[in-house]
Amino acid sequence: MRKENVTIRPSLTLPEKISMTKFLFSSYFTTPEGYGDDTFSYTPYLKELSEITAFFTYCVEGLTFEPLSESPEESNNNAESGIESIYDAVKDDTELMASYENVLSPDSRYPLLTAQLMDIRKDVEDMVDFEKKLLLSKQRDALSELLDTLKNKINDIDVSGLDINEFFRAVGRPENKEV
């Protein structure tokens, strides 16, 4: 990472707020490698990493991140973008992290940006809550569908020719045992 005239932006534009919100929301639901698009993991543990990455992507100017090396170990973090992991680059920089924490504090020197970031956090929380409810309702729908299918199959069974005595002779009569 290179630093040149690093400044914190006083505010975000509407398109930037939308992009940042979508970026943060997408970090809560990730597709495990090797699985299809309909399989995902709920990953709230990526919240801090994503918030720091988004902050230094959208709110800070004057940072340039280095291209990835050809080493697979080093390429793992941010292979899709072709640049080093923003989080890894800034997390140990005390000056940059202090500016991040300052913006998030109630006595921030950037009140508009701080308010926007708090609004974005709330929007992300609302979106995550909505998505979780949506996913749970889909699971309930699938369970209801399974139960309806089982009920229909049971209703389709013709018991008119069933002789219960013949059944018990074949499988044995249950014993009434005290528990």
Task: Note down, in words, how this protein is organized.
The strands form two sheets. The chain has a two-stranded antiparallel ribbon with strand order 1-4. Helix 1 runs antiparallel to helix 2 (about 45-60). The relative contact order is 0.12. Helix content is about 55%, strand content about 10%. The protein contains seven helices and four strands. The protein is mainly alpha-helical and about 180 residues long. The radius of gyration is 28 Å and the shape is elongated. The longest helix has about 45 residues, at about 110-155.
What are the defining features of this structure?
179 residues; mainly alpha; 7 helices; 55% helix
What's the gyration radius in Å?
A: 28 Å
What is the terminal-to-terminal distance?
A: 71 Å
- Total DSSP helices: 7
Helix share, percent: 55-70%
User: Major sheet, described briefly?
Assistant: 2 strands, antiparallel
Q: What value does the average pLDDT take?
A: 83
Summarize the helices and strands and which ones pair or pack:
Elements lengths: L1 E7 L5 H13 L2 E2 L10 E2 L4 H12 L1 E5 L7 H4 L10 H5 L3 H11 L6 H46 L7 H8 L8
Antiparallel strand pairs: 1-4, 2-3
Task: Write a short abstract of this structure.
With 179 residues, this protein is mainly alpha-helical.
